[in-house]
Amino acid sequence: MQRKLFKFNGGVKPATYKTDSTREPIKAVPLPAQLIVPLHQHVGGTPYPLVETGDVVLKGQRIGAADGNVSSAVHAPTSGRVVAVEPRVMAHPSGLTTLSVVIEPDGEERWIDCEPISLRAMSPDQVRDELRDAGVVGLGGAVFPSHLKLKPANGGTDTLVINGAECEPFITCDDLLMRERAEQIIRGAEIMQQLLQARRVLIGIEDNKPEAIAAMQHAVSARAAGSMEVVAVPTRYPAGGAKQLIRVLTGIEVPHGRRSTDYGVQCFNTGTAYAIADVIDRGRPLVSRIVTVAGNVERPGNYEVLFGTPMNHVAALAGIKPGTDRFIMGGPMMGFRMPAYDVPVVKATNCILVGSPELFPPPEPEIGCIRCGECARACPADLQPFELYWYSRAKNFGKAQEYHLFDCIECGCCAYVCPSHIPLVDYFRFSKSEIWARERQKHAADVARDRFEFRNERIEREKREKAEKLAAKTAASRAAASMAAAAAPAGTSDHSEDSKKALIAAAMARAKAQREAIAPQNTEALPPDQQAQIVNADAHRAAIAPADGNIAAQPTEKSPAEG
Ligand code: SF4
Ligand code: SF4
Question: Is the pTM for the entire model greater than 0.90?
Answer without folding.
Answer: no
